[in-house]
Amino acid sequence: MTNTILNHRSIRKYKKKKVEKELIEKILEAGIRASNTGSMQAYSIIVTQNSSKKEELLPLHFNQEAVKQAPLILTFCADLNRFNKWCELRGAKPAYDNFLWFYTASIDASITAQNCALEAEANGLGICYMGTTNYTAEKIIDVLKLPRGVIPVTTLTVGYPDETPSLTDRLPNNAVIHYEEYRDFSEIEINKIYKEYEESDFIKKIVNENSAKTLAHVFTEKRYTKENNIHFSKSLLEVVKNQGFWNH
Fold it and tell me: How far from each other are the two terminal CA atoms of the chain, in whole angstroms?
């Protein structure tokens, strides 16, 4: 499994080959065995294989071809709907209609997604996380008919790879690992941490393709702008409220 983790690549091109039913079940079982809060399993996994349903999801993932090519789409949702109904049927009053439990269930869904991703990759499949899930959560709710108490958190495209992209660079370990306490960074340390990263041919290519001054400008002016951050933050907050996770 260590080799699987260290050789992870985001796959965006897939072969026209279905994922076998037995393998899908194995992947989902790996997800279900993931750690979760209080053994509540406050998540749901929506399995999409139907081409027409994928066509509905495609524009909600900014028309990324992987969504159409991949034979299997897994949408992982924070889900308190099922648990709340069970509590009520047993005469217990649930108190999970608040932001804490959206956050908690989102963590459970994310851990479950990673288990599925690892099992898929360990069996020769490729995966790619769709960050667009959070941007269009309201519309995904409609397409997947998610009831109140259920919010999509992340999506995996899954299938047999039709590409072998290079491993993407990672920052050195001391950029993300802290022992005992958080150790803040000096200007000298920041420059040292990012130096090798910024000087790689891959990163230089990204900067040039975006006609940006530096990689930092790619992030702040091209990929994740303040305008978009505010827009999608407001949109997601409305989803959280409308789906019943904002009772103060």
Answer: 43
**Tens-place pLDDT, residues 28-71:** 999 999 999 999 999 999 999 999 999 999 999 999 999 999 99
- Name the phi and psi angles at 18, rounded to 5: -70, 150
CA distances, 120 to each of 56, 61, 165 (Å): 24, 21, 17
Does 248 reside within a domain?
A: no
Q: What percent of the chain has pLDDT over 90?
A: 91
Characterize 227-239 residue by residue with b for buried, 16 or more Cβ atoms within 10 angstroms of its Cβ, and e for exposed: eeeeebeebbeeb
| Contact between residue 98 and residue 247 where contact means Cβ atoms under 8 Å apart | yes
Q: Angle 154-155-160 (CA atoms, 0-180°, nearest 5)?
A: 150
What is the total count of domains within the chain? 1
For the question of whether the overall pTM of this predicted structure is more than 0.90, the answer is yes
